[in-house]
Design a protein that fits this description.
Blueprint: H1 12-46, H2 55-68, H3 75-93, E1 98-101, H4 106-117, E2 123-126, H5 129-138, E3 143-147, E4 168-173, E5 187-191, E6 202-209, H6 216-221, E7 226-233, E8 236-244, H7 249-257, E9 265-272, E10 276-278, E11 283-285
Parallel strand pairs: 1-2, 1-3
Antiparallel strand pairs: 3-5, 4-5, 6-8, 6-9, 7-8, 10-11
């Protein structure tokens, strides 16, 4: 007759010891991450500096976290923790503020600011996309946030991003889209123009035409693009257009010419990482 296996049942005290060990290890790792940031700052200084913002890398990191996550802990919590870690360590590299448009009611925008940037990064309240754009233009190290539609009273806000030195769109939030996201309102993030750090999966253009044509959405759709904004100024029309980064400007202009519009002009106003939709079973970048 074989002896019964020597098994030990966990006690609450045992489990609390394990939890304390894990908490201690996580804290140690965060402090270790901080030491690496100190070295990163030194390396950047030797190489002539560079932007602390890496929107393409951040989008990729958040997608990888969503894909590998499992277990009882909600993805919302994990994503929120990592957003605070990333944004706070970026703040440690170079202090910055987030300028946000609260004109549409503050609840959803406040949730988005705090979910994506935490409480260490200062938030400056504005009432309109125009105010955000002006503030970011004056404070070259800051970020701006406003709804993708710019708000009902914003007009053709994208025209203010056209000048060469004007702020540009660098990201679209949230990085991981899902129907029940706790801060899921579609947001554009702007900053002074980025060079090596920009993500170019999706390109954004301010397009001016003499008149509207109903053929435009279909023609852009054939290229994988869409009209995100449409504001009339008399007979003239200003459009906000998104296109895959693989479609060049000349191809878009050729497509729009087929619609019969005249007075066509287009200006790049930024870009962002591909939109990433996550359901838990299937995810897709668009």
């Amino acid at each position: 007759m074989s002896a019964a296996p020597d098994t030990k049942l966990d006690t609450l005290a045992d489990l609390r010891v394990e939890i304390d060990r894990i908490d201690r290890d996580m804290h140690e790792l965060l402090m270790e991450r901080g030491e690496i940031i100190d070295r990163l700052i030194a390396v950047k200084a030797r190489q002539g500096g560079g932007s602390a913002f890496r929107p393409g890398r951040e989008a990729s990191m958040m997608q990888m976290i969503a894909e590998r996550h499992h277990g009882a802990l909600p993805l919302d919590t994990v994503e929120g923790i990592w957003r605070i870690i990333i944004s706070t360590f970026t703040y440690v590299q170079a202090n910055y503020s987030v300028h946000a448009d609260f004109s549409g009611g503050d609840a959803a925008m406040r949730d988005s600011v705090r979910f994506h940037f935490g409480f260490t990064v200062p938030c400056v309240v504005h009432h309109g996309a125009g105010g955000v754009i002006d503030a970011v233009a004056r404070a070259s190290g800051d970020l701006g946030m406003f709804r993708v539609d710019g708000g009902a009273a914003a007009g053709a806000w994208w025209k203010r991003l056209v000048p060469e030195g004007a702020p540009k769109i660098i990201a679209r939030l949230p990085f991981v889209e899902r129907p029940d996201h706790p801060a899921g309102m579609p947001i554009f993030v702007i900053s002074v123009p980025l060079n090596e750090a920009a993500a170019h999966d999706v390109m954004l253009y301010a397009v001016a035409i003499d008149h509207w044509s109903g053929a435009i959405p279909e023609l852009l759709g054939q290229l994988g693009g869409e009209v995100l904004g449409n504001v009339a100024d008399g007979k003239a029309v200003s459009l906000l257009v998104s296109l895959p980064g693989t479609v060049d400007l000349e191809t878009m202009l050729g497509a729009l010419h087929k619609s019969g519009v005249t007075g066509l002009q287009a200006y790049p106003i930024g870009s962002h990482a591909a939109r990433y939709e996550f359901t838990g079973r299937h995810s897709e970048a668009t």
